[in-house]
Design goal:
By secondary structure, the chain is α+β, with helices and mostly antiparallel strands. It has five helices and 17 strands. α3 runs parallel beside α4.
């Protein structure tokens, strides 16, 4: 018997205004619901432009507490209940003074806050200085049992690590959703990196016999620092490449957004296919030689 749910991804450009970005996301979420979405996921850190391009402690002012008193969380819970959707939203979490996380919240279709996922892998590369802002997550990998599906959440840099996707699937996830902020750092874009980004995630879908949905932001965001504006046009920053997509357990891309436009991507997925593939193929779980994987807890095998 088919078990169809519609996954909605909100791919958009971000402006300077926090409230404007929030309202834009809310409006796009309503449009996704009008197109049939049951599960809606935002891009990474959707309330602001991608501030980790620079090291600037003033950016900590963008962070917010995520608890029952959080205005943003209350607003998102009300939205999910109003629209009867499961909502995954990526926020900059202030846990306490001096301790911050890159966090996604999961809200069920009745408006209940089910919990958080805190980004586990934190990059520190030119234009991606996230280690200045975010402590590594400490909540582990898990599946959230929602009205429509068992879902898992990873965030951006996590998407390169097969261990993260594996443990999320082992927790029961039928769909892994990945809020993302990735693009080309000007002035020298590398198109091959874009292809690698998609291929590795499609591989996670195959290896774990699940659906995978990655939602990226789009548009050029100038570096907040004038010293980094070194491109041929006097600019420096990140050109986010969009291409949000949904892949099935065979690794097939079911639907893909554009590279340079705001887009509300709504894609039906059949959760019965997850059961079918896991029954047919034994490699996701049964044939794993867990007794031979001890080396994975080491950083490198000399």
């Amino acid at each position: 018997m088919r078990r169809i749910v519609n996954v909605g991804l909100i791919q958009m450009s971000c402006g300077e205004g926090i409230n404007q970005n929030l309202e834009k996301t809310i409006e796009y979420t309503k449009q996704a619901t009008s197109q049939g979405a049951n599960i809606v996921c935002t891009q990474e850190l959707f309330k602001s432009r991608y501030f980790p391009q620079v090291v600037d402690s003033e950016m900590f002012g963008l962070a917010e507490r995520i608890d029952e008193d959080s205005p943003t969380l209350r607003q998102l819970c009300q939205l999910a209940a109003e629209l009867d959707i499961v909502l995954i939203a990526s926020l900059f979490e202030k846990r306490t003074l001096g301790l911050y996380h890159n966090t996604a919240v999961v809200i069920d279709a009745d408006g209940r806050f089910l919990g958080k996922y805190r980004k586990m892998h934190i990059p520190d590369d030119p234009h991606y200085y996230e280690k200045h802002y975010f402590a590594p997550g400490d909540l582990g990998y898990r599946a959230f049992r929602t009205r429509y599906a068992n879902i898992g959440v990873l965030i951006c840099w996590d998407q390169w690590f097969p261990e993260a996707a594996r443990l999320t699937a082992m927790s029961g996830a039928e769909i892994i959703l990945i809020p993302t902020a990735i693009g080309y750092s000007r002035p020298e874009p590398d198109p091959s990196y874009q292809e690698s980004w998609q291929v590795v995630q499609r591989g996670h879908a195959v290896a774990n016999a699940c659906y995978l949905a990655a939602v990226n932001r789009v548009g050029f965001e100038e570096s907040p620092s004038t010293s980094l504006r070194t491109g041929p046009d006097g600019q420096g920053g990140i050109d986010f490449w969009g291409r949000s997509f949904v892949a099935d357990p065979d690794g097939k891309v079911l639907k893909e957004a554009s590279e340079n436009e705001d887009e509300i991507l709504v894609c039906p997925v059949d959760l019965a296919f997850v059961e079918e593939v896991r029954a047919a193929w034994s490699f996701p779980f049964r044939d794993r030689r867990v007794d031979s994987y001890g080396g994975l807890i080491k950083l490198y095998l000399d």
